[in-house]
């Protein structure tokens, strides 16, 4: 490992990529405390975090997409959510804590919910071979409601970690949004395999809505890893692609056509309007303007 001069030994920085599995093992064995944050190198809009202390895992979750991930996992685990559950916070830990408090549920409920969320987040965290990591020793959880050995929570899902690691070539995380890039190829692949055809029929209306894999799996009542595996042939075959979790909005600026034979006037108009958010098209004569605007 390399370290910046200001970093204590063993502390990764955001500028250098490390193995998340090796780093978390090291920090747990050294009984460090704090939070480790990972930015997915394939989709920089996706971040995972792990809280730990005293050789134990306290919680793992995502730093975005709280609504999508919580609804999928808690519905899948049948943890008794009702229609009043509304995620209005940016932290999955805080969302579970508030729901537990408002419903006066037993402590066993909140620990079960936090355990399944932590296990699923660690699957994603450990499936990434190399990533930018940030260690914050002063950040913890209040109140602390969960503390489990790392091996205890990881051993049951080792196969899932491996499967997600293998899928990253075409689908890096459940936060990505499958999209159709070649309708004809999807149909061609579907007609060559009846199972693919059925799967494409099932998911096509979800894809049109630009949903995350979590949301699609929740809507289909399927395991998200099973869904990712079923989409892999369509992704490999070029029929489907993926958008990142955060899809940048395409800004359409209002357009002003400036028709004048004076370059000075043209420059004045551009300098006046572009800072206010206008796109200025400059034409020296009317015929040139008409030809371009009607093209």
List the defining traits of the structure above.
two-stranded antiparallel ribbon; disordered N terminus; 12 helices; alpha+beta; 295 residues; 6-stranded antiparallel sheet; single chain
Description of the structure:
There is one protein chain. With 295 residues, this protein is an alpha+beta fold. Helix 3 (92-103) runs antiparallel to helix 4. The longest helix is centred in the middle third of the chain and has 21 residues, at 107-127. Helices cover 45% and strands 16% of the residues. The radius of gyration is 25 Å and the shape is globular. The relative contact order is 0.12. It starts with 16 loop residues before the first strand and ends with a helix. The protein is built from twelve helices and ten strands.
In percent, how helical is the residue content?
40-55%
Total helical segments: 12
Strand order of the largest sheet: 1-5-2-3-4-6
What structural class do you assign from the helix and strand content?
Answer: alpha+beta
- Could you tell me how far the N terminus lies from the C terminus, measured between alpha carbons in angstroms? 57 Å
Number of strands: 10
Content of β-strand:
15-25%
Main pleated-sheet profile: 6 strands, antiparallel
Write the H/E string, N to C: EHEEEHHHEEHHEHHHHEEHEH
What do the pLDDT scores average to? 85
Low-confidence stretches: 1-9
Rg from Cα:
25 Å
Question: Rough shape?
Answer: globular
